[in-house]
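During the first year of the project, the team set up a workflow for recording each protein of interest as an amino acid sequence followed immediately by a discrete structure-token representation. This format lets reviewers and collaborators read both layers of information side by side without switching files. As required by the reporting guidelines, we include two representative entries from the current panel. The first entry is reproduced here exactly as it appears in our internal archive.
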Amino acid sequence: MNIEAPIVPGRSAAGIQLGSPIEEVLNEHKNSFSSGEVVNLSPSFPLNMRYRSAMVDVWAIEGRGEQIMVHDGYRGKLMGKIGLGSTIADIERYIGAVEEDEEDNLVIRDFPGLVFEIEGYFPDLRKDPAFRFAPIKEISVVSLSLPS
């Protein structure tokens, strides 16, 4: 697993490609991931498996990687500029406007394939401008066929 690999929206992170058979990912990265746990990624999709590692988690639906989340020290960047510890203000400066989608995920408007989690709790992002300066703690690369 490459913890410095670029983050590519809707495609890959950590050198892992979305859509890859999860057994291939697990075999290629032996001992990196804990055994899978059953989770419900979205109300509109069936139960699936989540595999965790120290800096990268992978969700699989029907045996294929459909979401890759980087966290806790991952060093790869989106467009060479945005990574863990960056802020929403950084994303807006370099890429575009950030908004909440219908499932309350932070996404970049007109830039599908990514979801962000920030430090802290901001119940209404439109009313609290401080959220723009909270550090990003997780970045998820999601399949373009899944709701982000």
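The second entry, processed by the same pipeline in the following quarter, appears below.
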Amino acid sequence: MEIIDGRVVGFTDLDDDGYVDMLFVDPDFGRQRVATSMLAATIALARQRGTVALTTYASLTAKPLFERHGFVVPEERFLSRDVELTNVAMRRELGAA
């Protein structure tokens, strides 16, 4: 979670399998390195836990952020429910702890 001036401006989650979920930044705080800070902290936490790889399903908007942090795209997905969505499965190897 990222807090600025007592306000929650972003959050994410890392599960025990290394899945990065719900990376969200309040639009009022976009382009202020909030997501970068949270993702760097998530990578550090994963290393501390001994996680060997991180995965996520990133939106096309979030894809460049994850790529800047070493994630690659082994699979692109097209989802069709009530609306059509495109996201990308991404992975970052951390290596042995």
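For the second entry, the following points were noted during internal review. The chain has two helices and six strands. The mean pLDDT is 91. Both points are flagged for discussion at the upcoming steering committee meeting.
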